[in-house]
Amino acid sequence: MKNLEFLIRNQKLVLSVYGLGNVGGPITAAWLRQGAKVIGVDISTTLLSQIKAGLSHSKEPFVSNTLLKGLQKNNLSLTTNGVDASRASQIKIVTVPVDTINNKVNLTSLISATTDIARGLKKHDVVVISPSLPPGTTENLVLPILEKHSKLRAKNDFHLIYNPERIFEGRALQDIEEHYPAIVAGIDEKSLKFGESLLKIISKKGVMTLSSISTAEAEKLFEGVYRDVNIALANELAIFSQKMNIDFWEARKGANSQPYCHLHYPGTGVGGLCIPIYPQFIIESAKKVGQNMEILEFARRLNDSMPKECVKNALALLTKHRKISEKKSKIAILGLGFRGDVADSRLSPTYTVVDEFLKKGFVVSVHDPFIKNDTTLPSAVLLSDKLDEIIENADLIFVSTDHKMYSKLTKTSFSKAKKPLLVFDGRNIVNKNNFKNIAIQTIGMKQND
What we know:
The protein is built from 15 helices and 16 strands. By secondary structure, it is α/β, with parallel strands linked by helices. It has three domains: 4-211, NAD(P)-binding Rossmann-like Domain (Rossmann fold, 3-Layer(aba) Sandwich), CATH 3.40.50; 221-299, N-(1-d-carboxylethyl)-l-norvaline Dehydrogenase, domain 2 (Orthogonal Bundle); 303-442, Rossmann fold, CATH 3.40.50. 40% of the residues lie in helices and 14% in strands. The longest helix is centred in the middle third of the chain and has 31 residues, at 213-243. It has helices at 4-9, 24-32, 45-52, 63-72, 82-87, 108-120, 137-150, 172-179, 189-200, 213-243, 248-255, 278-288, 294-321, 350-359, 387-391, and strands spanning 14-18, 37-41, 76-79, 91-94, 99-101, 104-106, 126-129, 159-162, 182-186, 207-209, 330-334, 363-367, 382-384, 396-399, 422-425, 439-442.
């Protein structure tokens, strides 16, 4: 194999990236920053237009600007035609989303992208699969599609590599380039060696090679499962602490001063297309081999129940301090993003919070500094990035997402809300020193009198 880095940086080899969203956009940017020539493939013409305007990845530092510069220098081209992109490239990187529908893995986008690649696949090409997948998916689904539609054979004719994305929204490019070693596995030793050489080009932390693709698929899921289970533990202990009149946050701080304890944060729920999804992949896979994943299933149920648990506590706060007529009472919910400082609301627990209040007849409005439009919220719910508009005449303020701006709020910030001021903080993000003598209830703490 010739010097791979030289070939890529001198554009003797062309890369194509399938899916330019939260994962594919930053991955494309990482390769462009190394001087590569990249074909970006996405079925969304809206996203492609946003990339051309430099407006595609506003919450990911450097990504939008890097993509725009790539277009201007002709290092990046964009298309919706995956077959043509496969024909015109030697290295194909699949970053399309894989999620669940009714707790069943949804591989539609992966199958579509893989089929397009196969129809343009040539001898000596390289296919890199990056989505998080149930173990065995690459070898049992992707590989047969590639071989069927290309009439080629892996190992002999083309390389097949699994390289799971390891990014945190809001710092994706930095994660790819600087924060973690890249995980790489291959269908055979030649693919593994190629993958190792390839990923070293963009990963300053180097590459960790694993012995099989299914092991690498499992590794990626284990990362998310660990977090989901430990968040569930934190949620259960927070509920216990509240009932026992214990300050969970103080107990957590003390416990975590011991180096073997790493209690996570409790909260209104777990969202996004990662942490809530990965346990379902494993649960579904385990059932096929006759195993029940009792801890994972319990953790999922508990984390999914947290929006309702928090609404119940918020209503207790409301009824304790105010005589209300539910059909006229207004709830101001702060945060639609699935976690702090991201413009991504996919599977956000806020949706359940909204639904619970609506079921009880409340008027509901939602504030988010990053999300101005949302088609998932019911039409009766006002969504705005203007805080005053949302909290005006609100009977209760419910903090659902830990956006950093909420840590800077004061009594003055809520001057248009009804008095006495009532705040339920489902993320422990509000600075209590700014709200002395105010009835603020925080998850994991006894309600103030």
